[in-house]
Specification:
26% of the residues lie in helices and 31% in strands. The chain has 3 helices and 5 strands; from the N terminus they run ββαααβββ. The chain has helices at residues 24-37, 53-56, 63-75, and strands at 2-4, 21-23, 80-91, 96-105, 110-118.
Length: 119
């Protein structure tokens, strides 16, 4: 697996030849982060794709449903073999979430993804 790398602002990188791409476990890690940060309803061709961040950060949340939604999004990423741990911290007053996701990929590597979600 190979994907175009993104920078800290989540924009594609260009101009550095093959260093603008990530492969294998790093590619899967970037795809997991992208899946978690995707907002449901943001793309008109796939309105059910992504996480319903507007509701999860805006009102009281059924945490079981929230974690199920996260797990579903992560397991849809090609290359994720098994989720070992998810630690979500929601701050609804500031509409902010911090996620720590641990998973095992198809290359048998244990990976950790940290995600910061802002409104």
């Amino acid at each position: 697996m190979r994907v175009r790398a993104v920078d800290d602002s989540h924009d594609w990188t260009f101009g550095n030849n093959m260093t603008d791409y990530k492969g294998n476990s790093e590619a899967i890690k970037q795809c997991v982060l992208t899946a978690v940060l995707s907002v449901r309803g943001d793309w008109f061709l796939a309105l059910e794709h992504g996480i319903d961040w507007f509701n999860y950060l805006g009102r009281s949340t059924n945490m079981a449903l929230f974690e199920s939604d996260l797990k579903s999004a992560i397991l849809k990423v090609d290359g994720v073999y098994k989720i070992t741990n998810i630690v979500p911290e929601l701050n609804r007053e500031q509409r902010h979430a911090v996620l720590s996701i641990e998973y095992i990929d198809v290359f048998s590597n244990k990976m950790v993804v940290q995600a910061n979600v802002n409104n």
